[in-house]
Amino acid sequence: ISKLNRHTSLILFSYINMIKTSSLTSLASSNNACTSASPGVFACSMEMETGSNIASILTEVDCGLGSLVEYNLSEFRDDVFKMLSRLRAHRNLTDVQLVVDIQAVHAHKVVLAAASPYFNAMFTSGLKESDTSRVRLQGVSPDIVISLVHFMYSGELSINEHIVCPLLSAASMYQMKHVVNACCRFLEDQIEANNVIGICNFALQQGCTELHTKATTFIEQNFSEVSTTDEFLELTGSNLAALIQKDELNVPDEEAVYNAVMRWVAHRPRDRRAKMPSILKFIRCHYLPPRFLSDQMSNCNIVKSIPACKEYLAKIFTELSLHKPQVGGVRCPPKTMCLFHLVGGYSDRKSQSALYCYDVDKNTWAELGPME
User: Fold this and answer.
1) For residue 114, what are the contacts with CB-CB under 8 A and spacing of at least 6?
2) Is 343 found in the same domain as 315?
3) What Gene3D superfamilies has UniProt attached to this entry (predicted)?
4) Number of structural domains in the chain
5) Which residue in 135, 154, 183, 324 is a FRET match for 229, CA 20 to 30 A apart?
6) Which carries the bigger pLDDT value, residue 124 or residue 27?
7) Domain carrying residue 300
């Protein structure tokens, strides 16, 4: 082994000296500029063809024995990853199997430890897995483990709506922040009125703060649309109360909030009637028109069947009739859309009939169709 190490060292040193000598020679004769910084130290910038890629000489530093040129060979990192992937594919030098159900995924412990703090702790903290070649993983599917291991060796990740949630959960467990961030960005792009509540709850469970904040903001700004979805009807009573008491709800009036709550109760009246009196107090009923309150007390079956609700609305109606001060602050005014329309134009000296719309808030363009 000592002979092999010495032989290897000699090869490496000779290779470094060869690069250094040839580089300095080419620097002296090339057209690339070198700027003197101090005796024995200079900084230079040149480009060197390496296959199809370009590697740059970053700096040259003085170590007391002359100037050393520092190289950053970007192609080298890619080649190492490719070679590691080939070694794994042929099961060369692999020293661990990740067993999921009945499937085993072969890998190198050093790669797993470098890519995941979870595996790093598993293999370097004296746990029993440090000395075993088979590690059984729980709570994750084989496909997800294969995707994560492929990412560790390549930096490549494929995400769709079917695997994004289990992939994000597994990446959180294995503390792979790059995968977590990629999944969060994917979910952010998928946010719509009919899925935003589910994404919001999932982000909260996984501790994805930024995704949770964006989903929450979407719900607040699009409450009228979100409140018509199936996910809204499946909210728990506590989650509904927490939502409707927010000042940030973007609604045209308080009737929109009241009607949303009534739809929620009507979805499962037998289970939710008992919760109605407490939830009703989170609606800013003092901002409901007296005529609307009167109509609800007379014609709404849910209100008529719950004495506490009817009494509460009657009290509000009386206070409004007596012009008593309103309780609770006004919600933020409705946010109007900011749109720009691009009409017509000329191309190749011909008039165009195209009509486009730009949404400032979403930073998106949409083609509305040709003008007649």
Assistant:
1) 120, 152
2) no
3) 1.25.40.420, Potassium Channel Kv1.1, Chain A
4) 3
5) 183
6) 124
7) 222-321
Q: Measured between alpha carbons, how far is 144 from 183 in angstroms, rounded to an integer?
A: 13
Q: Determine the average pLDDT of the residues in 297-302.
A: 93
* 357 within some domain: yes
32 and 45 Cβ atoms separated by less than 8 Å = yes
Q: What is the pTM of this model?
A: 0.71
Last residue of some domain: 72, 104, 125?
A: 72
Residue 312 belongs to a domain with what CATH number? 1.25.40.420
Burial string for 280-317 (b: 16+ CB within 10 Å, else e) reads bebbbbebbeeebbeebbeebebbeebeebbebbeebb
Q: How far apart are CA 193 and CA 214, in angstroms?
A: 13
pLDDT band of residue 182 (cuts 50, 70, 90) is very high
Alpha-carbon separation of residue 153 from 109, 143, 156, 286 (angstroms): 12, 16, 8, 61
Domain finish residue from 45, 72, 99: 72
According to DSSP, the β-strands at 96-100 and 134-136 are parallel
- Classify residue 100 by burial, with Cβ atoms within 10 Å: 0-12, 13-18, 19+: buried
Q: Are residues 280 and 352 in the same domain?
A: no
Distance CA(44)–CA(33), nearest Å, equals 6
Query: What is the average per-residue pLDDT within 333-346?
Result: 69
Query: Residue 232: its pLDDT value, please?
Result: 97
Q: Is residue 85 part of a domain?
A: no
293, 355: one domain: no
Q: What distance in Å separates the CA atoms of residue 136 and residue 102, rounded to the nearest whole number?
A: 10
